[in-house]
Design goal:
single chain, about 400 residues, alpha/beta, Aspartate Aminotransferase, domain 1, seven-stranded mixed beta sheet, about 15% strand
Length: about 400
Amino acid sequence: MALDRLNVSLAADVAQLANEGRAKAPERVIVGYVPASGVRGPRYRLRDTEGEFLRMNANSYLSLSHHPALIEAGDHAARAFGTGPGAVRFIDGTSVHHVALEERIAAFVGRPSAKVFNSAYTTILGTAITLTGPDTYWIGDALNHNCIIRAMRIANVASNRRAIFAHNDVADLERQLAAVPDDVGRVVVIFDGIFSMRGDCAPVGDLLRACEAHTHRFRDGVVTMMDDSHGIGAYGATGRGTEEHCGARVDILVGTFGKAFGVNGGFVAGSPELIEAVRQKADTYIYTNPLSAADCASAVAAVDIADGPEGRERLAGLKARTRQFREGLAALGLESIEGPHPVVPLLVRDTERTRAIVRGLFERRILAVGLTFPVVPQGDETIRFQVNAAHTASDIDDVLGALAELAK
């Protein structure tokens, strides 16, 4: 068969990943959801595994995925418009629910316009394609998400048209800005709002001041772009994300509906001119089917909840459980990275110990993600925990109790 020889090569590629310690473990399959009961938050059942598991590795920070309002909104839209759009946005694939979601998220993040994509990943790719021209220069944080790194490649950004500054290092950003060649017409400085493996946030105000000092040098200035997928909905006094936490505002904001809002899809928000350029130029918007009407309707319901009294209550509960967990780690003498975000890393700093703790947690029916060498440098081995609003005080106590045993 035609694939016989290719299959041998592909199997060798995967074997090489395994030899290097970079292969992904087999995917666990969730087969059931167990609602919260009493002092216990929701649990999940896994295929071929006994018991019910507490998820400490979910991005659903506000725990909205099972909210009746989201389910009802999605069901109503699916019955009215079907389960899929049937075409790309340009070919009559746009429903009233797409427009409603764009208007709703733009209002939530305080921008005049927004455009929704089928993921935040494709949002970053498409926006990078839109902004990149022959005299565009990109500068990014060293720990930016994979989607930003891929975006530079897909947008064909040449090696002499990009630079990296050390993680959250404003002085190094200033050095990189000073080194931008004079023939550049547009500089884009791009960074994550919340760094997903560490839970720390970009010093947005300081980064903006560094960019402002150089913006006069370039035809289109220095444009700031932030992917706040882990911040929007879960961070700041009212869930407006890293901008609200830092009291500073970037030029272009990217976010997701797939984390705090508990649905699917991504968005970019900014000026009407930017959004129209994205609509005209972003390949990952133009040439692929959009979200379904049901996804959009559920996302509108989620933003409405996040923007109201129930959302404030869930956010307050999320912050309380995050404080409980962070303080509990400190009381156990375990190392983390300080900050109020519900991404809470446990710095283990040893590959075998990290793997052993993750196994021990699994045996105790707790799901968490271990990051080990060579995925991270030796000495940076980490277990990432993610607190959700549906976690109870008892749940957090259970996790801390397990870690107290396993840390020995």
